[in-house]
Amino acid sequence: MKLITRNTDYAVRALCFIANSKARIVPVGTLVKELKIPRPFLRKILQTLHNKGILKASKGYGGGFSLALPVNKIFLVDLIKIFQGPLKLNECIFKKKLCPNRNTCPLKRKIDGIEKYVASKLESITIASLLKRS
Questions:
Q1: String of b and e for 68-97 (b: at least 16 CB within 10 Å)?
Q2: Topology adopted by domain 6-86+126-133
Q3: Handedness of CA 38, 4, 34, 42 (dihedral sign)
Q4: Distance in Å from the first CA to the final CA of the chain
């Protein structure tokens, strides 16, 4: 189980770099070079962030990406939802069928509690809070 996938990690790294950049618009080439992320992966991630309203895209010579939201409004949990779907630690699926015991299962109740705790912690992490720690 991965809590943070490669795409989410790349998105966080790109957003932190753009937020820290002195340039108003950061070219994709700069991000590829500085973050050492393969161009095809990064372009797809940046396009997704643009389509979700987190980044602004500028085309043409001198083009690139800039933040569309303040760093304190970009939450890690939202990035996880964008790139990974809803946060779920336990799907309670057996052979692609829902478990018939999911309503009475004591393990599911425990895991649901852990899931709520993890979600509450992730909801407090913003790009701004990550920048303060670096």
A1: ebebeebbbbbbbebbeeeeeebebeeeee
A2: Arc Repressor Mutant, subunit A (1.10.10)
A3: positive
A4: 26
User: pLDDT digits over 11-35, tens only?
Assistant: 999 999 999 999 889 999 999 999 9
Q: Pull the structure tokens for residue 87.
A: 């946060």
Instruction: Supply the pTM of this predicted model.
Output: 0.85
Delimit the domains of the chain by residue range: 6-86+126-133
- Give the alpha-carbon dihedral of 6, 52, 127, 10, to 10 degrees: 20
Which residues pair with residue 64 across a beta bridge?
58
Element (H, E) at 108: helix 106-122
